[in-house]
Amino acid sequence: MTKWHVLQEMQSLIRLFCLHCADKETLEQLDQMIEDRGSWPKARSLFEAIRLKNLKAEQRSDRRAEAQYCFEEVCAKTLYNLAMQPAPYDPDTLYWIVPNALTLARELGLSPMDVVVITDPPRPS
pLDDT per residue over 78-98, tens digit each? Predict the structure, then answer.
């Protein structure tokens, strides 16, 4: 899978979740950032902002928000890593996008197939 496929799938997932999440701010920032390759190095500071939101969600035991922010965190980390900047996040970061997307879909009451159809679309037979 190329980085362009990863970005396309990540953006499709972000747009799906944006329709169902109350807090759209950082989802929308991620969506815009994907479109602007020059902004990818700023994904580290976006990750830090998302992490603070996630810590607050943990303190109030808001599982839905935690699932959202965990998904957003791996998206921000992936963008930063794709920018080829110093001090990258762990190389396995992008492999957490789908599991975190499935967790968020479950918390939002969506079908796991909503995620699967984006990340593993049917192939012509």
Answer: 999 999 999 899 999 999 999
